[in-house]
Amino acid sequence: MQTVSLSKVRELKIVIGINGEFPGPVLNVTTNWNVVINVKNDLDEPLLLTWNGIQHRKNSWQDGVSGTNCPIQAGWNWTYDFQVKDQIGSFFYFPSLNFQRAAGGYGGITINNRAIIPLPFALPDADVTLFITDWYTKSHKELRKDIESGTNLGIPDGILINGVGPFRFDEAIVPDGFPFLTINVEAGKTYRFRVHNVGISTSLNFRIQNHNLLLVETEGSYTVQQNYANMDIHVGQSFSFLVTMDQNASSDYYVVASPRFVNSSSWAKATGVAILHYSNSQGPASGPLPDPPNDFDTYFSMNQARSIRWNVSAGAARPNPQGSFKYGEITVTDVYVILNRPAELINGKWRTTLNGISYLTPSTPLKLAQQFNISGVYKLDFPNKLMNRPAKLDTSLINGTFKGFMEIIFQNNDTTVQNYHLDGYAFFVVGMDIGVWTENSRGTYNKWDGVARCTTQVFPGAWTAILVSLDSAGIWNLRAQNLDSWYLGQELYVSVVNPESDGSEAALPDNAIYCGVLSSLQKDQAQRVKFSGSPSVSCSSTTILVLLIIAFGAFIG
After folding, report:
1. Which residues of 15-48 are buried (b: 16+ CB within 10 A; e: fewer)?
2. What is the Cα–Cα distance from 4 to 357, expressed in whole angstroms?
3. What are phi and psi of 16, to 5 degrees?
4. Which of 96, 244, 375, 526 is the most exposed place for a label (fewest CB within 10 A)?
5. Cα separation of 477 and 424, whole Å?
C-alpha cells in the first residue's frame, strides 16, 4: 500500500495502481517491436487492460475489451502478446471494464521511430509524459452506482496532473500542504510533452504559462507543425508538443489543465496546476493563471480542431510519406450515420444508445463466439441510421466489408461533448460542424490532409465525419470514450472478415481465457503468477517483456 496526498478533500481514496505506481509506468517501445505483458490481477473484481490506439493488426485477440476477451479474474494473471506493427506516437493503456478507469490503472505507451526513419523535427532533449484527468473522491464502484441510478457525475473534486495537484495557485481554493507536480527543465532546451486526457468525461484545456505549444504529433500521426497558446484535449485524446524553454526564468511557470464548456465560477476548484521549474529559476510562480479560451466558445474549439492537419510529407512508421495514402481518392463502400442521445430509461434502467441501440454485453465474447461458430450471441444488423422504433438493448454489430472504405458520421444529440474511439485502426477526421449532417455536408470535407487518429470529439448539437480503411480483419470496438456514456451502453463492434481466409489473421492464442458458454474449456489458473504461455508474434523483431501487477492502493485525496 502507498499513500499520496491529492488536493481538494482530505478523504481516503482507493485507487488502482500498477507495480505500486499511480499513474502506471510508461511502456517505451519502438516500431515493430513485440510487446509481451503479463498482467497480474490483484483487484477484487475482473479486469482487462486495453491499449488505446494500438492497432493490433489482424490480431483483435489482444485488444482487451469485453467483445474480444474474457476477463482476467481476481487473483489470476494473463499475458498479452502483440506487435506495434507500423506505428509511432503517443498512446496510453487503461482498464476497460466496470468503470475502473475512474480509479486509475492507466499508463503511457510511447512508440519511437526506427533509427532509419528520421523525425520530422530536431530530436528533443527529453520526453515528459503527462496524464490529465477529472477526479472524484467517490470510488469507481460508487460512481457506477450513481450512473446506474440516473445521477449525473456532477462537478469533479479536482483535476489531477500525473495523479497529484494542484499547486496552491489560489489560497481561497487550494488548501495548504498538498503535493503537486514539478517539471524540472533546463533553459534553452526543448522537451517533447506527451499529454493524455485519461479522464472520465471532462474536456480539458492544456496550457503552459508564457510558453508556446508546437504541435507535432497526435495519436500516431505527425501533424503540420503549428504553435498554439493552449489546446483543448478531449477525453481519450493524446497530443505531443515541442516546448522550448526560452523564458528568462524570473520565476517558475504554471502548467494548467482546466475544464471546458462549463460554468467557470462553480467549477473553479476543478483546475489542475503543476509547476514548470527552470534550474535557474529566481522564484516561485505567482499571479493569475494564464487565461483559458471563453468557457462556452464551441466555435473556437472546433476551429482549433479543424486546424490540426496531417503532415503529408513526413515519414512515420514507414519511410514513405504519410500523404502517399491518398484517402480522398478512395471510393466509399459503406456509410453509417450514428446518432447518440442522452441517457434514457429502457426496460426500467438508465441506458445510453447509438442509433437507438444500447449495447448488451454477452457472457461469451464476440470473438470467441465467432471462432467457435456459436450462434445467437450477436447479430450483424447494426442499422446505418436511426430507425423509427423504440430504443432497445441488443448485441448488434456492424458487418464491415474487408478492405472496404467506411464513412461514419457521428451526430451528437447530447448536451455535452462526446468522444468516440475505434480500436484496430486510425481514421481520418475529414469534417465537423454545428447542426445536422446532410449529404451536402460532404462538400466541406478535407480530402487531403485530415489528421489520422483514433479518438475524435463531437460537439453538442454538431457532427463529426471520419473515413476509415477496413484493411485489418478482426472484431473491433467502437465506443464512447466518456465513461458514463460507455458504461451505460454507447458502444458497438465492427466485424471485419476476410472472405478468402488467407490465414493472415492471428490464431486463437494458446493462453486464451474461456467464459460464458465456453467456460468448460477453461483450465484453472487461480493464483498463477508466472508468465502464462503465449508465443511471441514474431522472432524477427525486438521483444520487450513487461510484468504489470494491478492492485488497489490507499491514497489520501
Report:
1. bbbbeeebbbebbebbbbbbbbbbbbbbbeebbb
2. 42
3. -100, 115
4. 375
5. 8
Q: Could you tell me the CA-to-CA distances from 444 to 5, 209, 281, 450 in Å, in that order? A: 49, 35, 48, 12
Q: What CA–CA distances, in Å, run from 251 to 170, 177, 278, 279?
A: 17, 21, 8, 10
SS3 49: strand
Q: What distance in Å separates the CA atoms of residue 94 and residue 198, rounded to the nearest whole number?
A: 8
Instruction: Please report the sign of the dihedral spanned by the C-alpha atoms of residue 196, residue 259, residue 462, residue 447.
Output: negative
For residues 58 and 166, give the distance between their C-alpha atoms in angstroms, rounded to a whole number.
42
* Burial letters 155-193, b for 16+ CB under 10 A, else e: bbbbbbbbbbbbbbbeeeebeeebebbebebeeeebbbb
CB-CB neighbours of 541 under 10 Å: 15
Q: How far apart are CA 517 and CA 376, in angstroms?
A: 11
Residue type, 101: R
Residues of the chain with pLDDT under 50: 1-10, 526-539, 556
Strand, helix or coil for residue 144: helix
Q: Give pLDDT, residue 270.
A: 87
C-alpha 317, offset from chain centre: 20
Give the type of residue at 83: Q
d(CA 421, CA 90): 15
Tens-place pLDDT, residues 120-130: 999 999 999 99
Q: What is the DSSP letter of 138?
A: S
Q: Which residue has the cell 500525473?
A: 162
Q: In sequence order, which residues have a C-beta less than 8 Å from that of residue 77 and are 6 or more positions away?
A: 38, 39, 40, 41, 525, 528, 529, 530, 532
